[in-house]
Write a structure and sequence with these properties.
13% of the residues lie in helices and 43% in strands. The chain is mostly beta strands. A twelve-stranded antiparallel beta barrel has the order 4-5-6-7-8-9-10-11-12-13-14-15. Strands 1-2 form a two-stranded antiparallel ribbon.
Length: 313
Amino acid sequence: MLLARFAGSQRWLVCWLAALLLPLCAWAQPGAGELRADEDPAAAASDATPAPEARPETSTAQPLFVSLARDLDLFTLINDRPGLSFHKPMYVWPFTYSPEHSGQDTELIFQVSLKQRLFARNLFFGYTQRSFWQVYNSDDSRPFRETNYNPELFYRWKPGYPACVGCGLDIGIDHESNGQEVRDSRSWNRAILAAYTESEKTLIHLRLWYRIPESAKETPDDPEGDDNPDIDDYYGYGELRVQRHLNGDRRHMAGMMLRGNPATGKGAVQLSYSLPLGDDAFWSLNLWHGYGESLIDYNNSITRLSFGVMLAR
């Protein structure tokens, strides 16, 4: 049944994938002019061989996705290279199945996530957007059921202690909302503290948060005030992520996310596995069970199996 729906909607998927990927490939940034943090400008100048004669200046610009491709084998959540880089996982899952969420049981899910290093310091602005698209639902004109927007600002500290070379700490703030009108509107603001340790094969990342309080709504239709006062009951106050490369070439990766509130017994677990799809992408299989898959479903428990392509892990 899933394949039949997919075959009937191929032109919609092709148009959407083109709309997503072509702007990324067209957005160029300089490659040769970027200075790595470990380069000595004086040494680079002394090693350079001057051209024997003036030549017309040529562009060394590379498509953005090509310049980001070097991050594909890294744990993108904690990479901190200069400029623009991947942040959280980026994926397109055209095959998903869940019998429990509102709407059709099959929809396409995609996530885009990038971060920009600011002022040549370990200060970052990140942006993540995750959308749930009922592309197979032609009867209702293939609507977007839900989109979550998540900008954040954080500072990353890597002390480089000999006893924990791969340790680091992030501190910052974030906002997440779904841009819906009253009754369906969901949003929250958080202060974030994350600690992690990275080895050659494994990343362990613990992210804790404190929700910044909001005033209560006077009526359910009040546009001001807290849209979801009990969201901590379902999300809890933090999440643990573990990622591990499974072989020597770092191309196979397994991941797990756990979060919850011990006081309410509610939370979520996510399991993922990815393997190479050429040089620039990965096949991805993902299993979700629990609350908060999206903001609109923060208080609904959902089980979903997803399959597709991952661009960053």
